Amino acid sequence: MTTMSTNTTPTTAARPLTSRWWFTPVPLARIAVVRVIAYLFIPVDVFLTTAWVKAHADVPTEWYAPLLIGRVLHLPTPTHTLVLVVQWALVLAAVAAATGRAPRLLGTAVFLLYLEWMVIAMSYGKVDHDRIAFLVLLAVLPTIGCARFRDRRSSEAAGWAMAAVLVTVMLTYFLAAWAKIRFGGWDWPTGSTLTRAVLRRGTWASDWTLEVPWLLTAAQWVMVILELAAPLMLFVRSDRARIGLVLFLLGFHLMVFAGVTIIFLPHVVAILSILPWERLTARFARQAPQSLATSSSAAA
């Protein structure tokens, strides 16, 4: 079957290289899978990974120091009622959006509600950097429109959306290195940041590193170098290379979690959008007719 493109034009090949990179068509089947993963993660995030946000419903309103976006948009001060309404509206909208129905309407609602949930979360003195790529993912998903698991078409709109997420994932790492150098200088790689982290949050998987003085310092140098090299991610194009990149990034985050029990789950979900999920849906689509044919033969 010939793969169709919903948004490509005859002049695509004549576009500048950067334009072609941003709008390289992506199979809509990939979007269908990514939507389910992203939207079903939200109840997990609301009730487990950021369950502490609900506690802001019971703190004095004068403690609220809104982020810049909250001040610019004049978002309301969180009250007990507001926090609970946002929480449950977000969860219900995310579950509904995961079905694939009304993708633009429900997707936009999910993004706006999650953005407000993050403003409520981060306006009390602590701002996490692991949310931006996931927020961008939620922002771009509604721009694509309808997508089904067995949709064999490709879309430039989907390509742009996935490129935006990939760039944001890359910037999360690159800007992390920039912040280390900006605020800690080149003393950061030679300092004791990881040593302090292991002393405070170490596990059986990392406690032994305290007995190898040079190891954690070397790990800090490797971390900074890899983060500075993050723009190389943008040159990963083939499916095999994308799978390798995702496995590398997931391995890094699992290693960090095993060592100091810190995991950036929303960022990990954004990373999963890099995978060529359409290959998995195509495999299931091929297996389904074979299973039906086998059942029919057995019945006969």
Automatic annotation (TrEMBL):
The keyword Cell division does not apply. It is a multi-pass membrane protein. Residues 23-269 form the HTTM-like domain. The chain crosses the membrane at residues 21-42, 80-98, 105-125, 131-150, 157-179, 214-236, 243-275. Keywords: Membrane, Transmembrane, Transmembrane helix. GO terms for cellular component: endomembrane system. The keyword Transmembrane applies. InterPro entries: HTTM-like (IPR011020). It is found in: Endomembrane system. This is HTTM-like domain-containing protein. The lineage of its organism: Bacteria, Bacillati, Actinomycetota, Actinomycetes, Geodermatophilales.
